[in-house]
Design goal:
Helices cover about 20% and strands about 40% of the residues. It has about 190 residues and is α+β, with helices and mostly antiparallel strands. The chain has one domain: Gcn5-related N-acetyltransferase (GNAT) (Aminopeptidase, 3-Layer(aba) Sandwich). The mean pLDDT is about 95.
Length: about 190
């Protein structure tokens, strides 16, 4: 049994217990063409000879935990923690309201590898949608990476739409490193 509830400030350090790594046997290759106002991008899924394994490089750092604390202190968002019946952290959600454009940004939706495939991520996202609707928010935005095809498939399957990309978000070599930031959105009425 997994309990999902509002996260308390003293639980933030426990978020580093989550193993959020992923493995993907494909990548969304970003093909850029043209220049200036004629620039265009195309995503093409390409199988990898060797699966890409993010391993523990996706773990929350102390700086991530500090930012989560800061968002919680502001009180303008929605923060969930999921615990199993043995008090193991199974996942978390960190959603911050962006008042200036009436959206909410999903900073983190993490499910520990041991708890994937049970609908936990979908359930937490549904709770975020409910929160956003209750607060009159017009859309939820999410950033993920072109090499995190499992996350891209998840957001696509739950009704998000791909609305943009940034090919220098992480470094000046994002295209060459095949890790390009993709922006997704879930529109609300």
């Amino acid at each position: 049994m997994i309990e999902i509830r509002t996260m308390r400030m003293e639980e933030v350090p426990r978020l580093s217990e989550i193993d959020p790594g992923f493995v993907s046997d494909s990548v969304l290759e970003v093909r850029k063409s043209g220049s200036g106002l004629s620039t265009g991008w195309q995503l093409v899924e390409r199988r990898l000879a060797t699966p890409f394994d993010k391993g523990r490089r996706y773990d929350l750092r102390e700086s991530d935990l500090a930012e989560i604390r800061e968002r919680m202190e502001k009180g303008s968002g929605f923060h969930l923690i999921a615990l199993d019946d043995r008090d193991r952290v199974a996942g978390m959600l960190d959603l911050a309201v962006e008042a200036w454009n009436n959206t909410a940004h999903l900073w983190f939706l993490l499910v520990d590898n041991a708890f994937r495939g049970r609908g936990l991520g979908r359930h937490m996202f549904d709770l975020a949608i409910d929160y956003a609707r209750r607060h009159g928010i017009r859309a939820i935005t999410i950033e993920t990476q072109s090499n995190n095809v499992p996350a891209c498939r998840f957001y696509d399957a739950i009704g998000c739409e791909l609305v943009g990309l940034n090919d220098i978000f992480y470094s000046n070599e994002d295209l060459e490193q095949e890790e390009v930031a993709l922006t997704w959105a879930y529109r609300l009425e």
